[in-house]
């Protein structure tokens, strides 16, 4: 679809109009900062589950993951397995406890606020470091979404890449800026369903044309039989244990994704977490599996190898569907991008407005002022991420993996253990965040420089997560700090409600 077509334009305009209408309606419903950042904690299980999945599945699920499967085949299954286990563990281990405890702790809206109140920490460092970790790694995550948006508009409309990135930022800013969490969650449901429909439509049509799964598998095998072997790469070389652990290790990232955890805190009732878990895990697994099939479909449908493998979904939809249908399906990529970027911008906004700005100004903010600061923060973060995205040769999956590892390793262990370990201390949490984040940064730097004999090929999230857990245990156990009676009483109160 290198040339503009009227049906495609109509599909995109219709999609954008729906999203903007949702944003305007949510703006009318948004009265205060609690509404803006958590939607008044009134999301239904379905909305909470689907919006959590959609906010996680950014452009990398429609561009990066299919592109990986297009090049590597069923090697990508290990990522899907790891991610699905991670989604399930996140919902089962954290959702209900985080919903209960965040309410108990004076309606803690953000992760830094939750951690500070969980340990009744009178010092500012835990809150500051947690906030800075979110801002740092989310800049890369948001940037990856904008890179995906630039590739989409460049492929569909032939727009200059930089212009395309800027156009996507403007659209996302509109409904995030005004509608806040309600707009983000409602549009995420709409966008999530559109994403899933697009991911299913392409493989279903291709597999049907191939005469079923057996015929489809035979055609892929004719191209390269190793693409169907989960234990080898595309060249037939067996995957090492280190490679499999790295791919499975992606699932650890879920424990530290604030935009997903926000859906746990915003669900209407802790008693509805079970229903949301079933919906969320099923939705995510189907989406990941379909993304891999899209990549395999590209191997048999595209005559010439793609210079940029992450365009496989774009090329397939334009090749096998009518322009109107293709326009709708390509709008799903924009939906995937927007559903994640808006959530991440909102988390950054909440961190700045709720955590860092009041500490910087050393004063309490009125609800109206918090809302105003939050909206300004959205704009600032979007502009910073736009600067990072101005590299059209960047790979979406590479940028996502860095942000994913940083968030998972720094915040994940601290949040997870804080929900279960009664005696955990603020010093332990701070040590875990610093150790996990630093490990990812150093590990990635050493790996990219070629240092070591293969050890740094291990996905940085895995050692970062393990070292973070170790740091939390060591500092908590050997430290002189003991939990106050207030903290222990709060923890016991939360546990009694489970």
List keywords for this structure.
20 helices; mainly alpha; single chain; 0% strand; 498 residues
Structure description:
With 498 residues, the chain is mainly α. The chain is 76% helix and 0% strand. The chain contains 20 helices and no strands. The protein has helices at residues 6-29, 33-38, 45-56, 59-72, 77-104, 111-118, 125-157, 161-209, 213-223, 241-248, 258-266, 273-301, 312-320, 323-361, 367-389, 396-410, 412-418, 426-448, 461-478, 485-496. Helix 1 runs parallel beside helix 14 (323-361) and helix 13 runs antiparallel to helix 14.
| DSSP E strands, number | 0
**β content, as a range?**
under 5%
State the helicity in percent bands. over 70%
Average pLDDT across residues? Answer: 82
How do the helices and strands line up, and which of them pair or pack?
Layout lengths: L5 H24 L3 H6 L6 H12 L2 H14 L4 H28 L6 H8 L6 H33 L3 H49 L3 H11 L17 H8 L9 H9 L6 H29 L10 H9 L2 H39 L5 H23 L6 H15 L1 H7 L7 H23 L12 H18 L6 H12 L2
Summary?
The chain is mainly α. It has helices at residues 6-29, 33-38, 45-56, 59-72, 77-104, 111-118, 125-157, 161-209, 213-223, 241-248, 258-266, 273-301, 312-320, 323-361, 367-389, 396-410, 412-418, 426-448, 461-478, 485-496.
